[in-house]
Amino acid sequence: VQLQASGGGLVQAGGSLRLSCAASGRTFRSLTLGWFRQAPGKEREFVAAIGNGGTTRYADAVKGRFTISRDNAKNTVLLQMNSLKPEDTAVYYCAADRGLILSSWSRGAAYDYWGQGTQVTVSS
User: How many C-beta atoms surround the C-beta of residue 39 within 10 A?
Assistant: First the structure.
């Protein structure tokens, strides 16, 4: 599985961005898909994930502001980010794997496939 993330950019606090991650391969429907982020000087952290049945999970820091969705026809996972804050500034990565149990969705080490990252910068 190859992943290509896009959609990052510079936005003012309170604004919105939509990240997209396109996946290769014919088994997209079976994948669990996640978004992670890493800010300068900080460890990578979980943002959101969506299972092959549409179940979603979010980090507490983004609940109510971010929405993850998937389009199986287009082999794409989206992250709609609203009410952005300066602390959301980070490189955002999409990740994918098969057969993940729900309790592992927030662990980066559980995912075998990663995109290249896209920079999101939120100015105050």
Answer: 14
